[in-house]
Design goal:
Rossmann fold; eight-stranded mixed sheet
């Protein structure tokens, strides 16, 4: 049976409560950091960590806001996320602290760590790669593509996968093109999968607000998970 625990990690003036789900294993296993959407670490991200453990990896749901804080409305979510969007250096410091704590776990093979993230968490996964973190690869799922304004000409060694809904109103086609150009300039090994007729938050079964642009897509969710599995098999082989 998988073993679950909460890991307290200090980062500046906050304590991040990371959720760790480790599979039964005879030795250290690869690990996948799961970065949360703008609402904070919820059961959605914890369940993704559990799904990761079912693949034989250690799943770690990050808590980038600290103290497991979550928002309950658009306004509260934005108030939690915006300070980190405006201070990417602080965001990256918390990401690196989360990575260091994960790599130090006895259950983790520190040479085989990847990351994935949803919405705001997709930007976080990309920032791990942009900032030179020691990760094998990162996945952005319906993530934000806003480049990091504190990094000049980053060189990206981690493999990058972006899974994107083409009709996502929060990430227009010009931003998709800009990400491709950024990845090329950074010398990254990158992939982009775009799902037609698909909006933001397409992996979240609770997303059902077409006016806001968040709608669950069972087919895109299924395809994205299969692609996610294949990507982790590739980077951890």
């Amino acid at each position: 049976m998988p073993v679950e625990q909460t890991l307290d990690v200090a980062a500046g003036d906050i304590t991040m409560k990371m959720f760790v789900c480790a599979p039964e294993s005879d030795g250290p296993a690869p690990a996948v950091l799961v970065s949360h959407a703008w609402g904070g670490q919820t059961e959605f991200e914890k369940n993704k960590a559990r799904q990761v453990a079912q693949l034989g990896y250690v799943g770690v749901a990050m808590d980038l806001y600290g103290d497991a804080r979550t928002g309950g409305s658009t306004e509260e979510n934005s108030a939690l996320m915006q300070p980190l969007l405006e201070n990417r250096a602080e965001l990256q410091a918390r990401l690196h602290a989360s990575l260091a704590a994960t790599a130090a776990l006895e259950s983790v093979d520190a040479a085989k760590v990847g990351a994935m993230g949803y919405c705001f968490g997709g930007l976080c996964a990309l920032d791990l790669a942009r900032s030179g973190a020691a990760v094998k690869g990162v996945i952005s799922l319906h993530g934000l593509f806003v480049p990091a304004d504190n990094l000049d000409n980053p060189q990206i060694s981690a493999k990058v996968l972006a899974l994107h809904g083409w009709d996502d109103p929060m990430v227009k086609p010009d931003q998709v093109l800009a990400l491709a150009e950024e990845m090329n300039a950074a010398g990254a090994d990158w992939q982009l999968h775009a799902y037609g007729g698909t909006m933001h938050a397409f992996t979240n079964p609770e997303a059902n607000d077409p006016d806001f642009g968040t709608v669950y897509s069972p087919s895109a969710d299924r395809r994205a998970w299969q692609t996610t599995r294949d990507f982790f098999t590739e980077i951890f082989e």
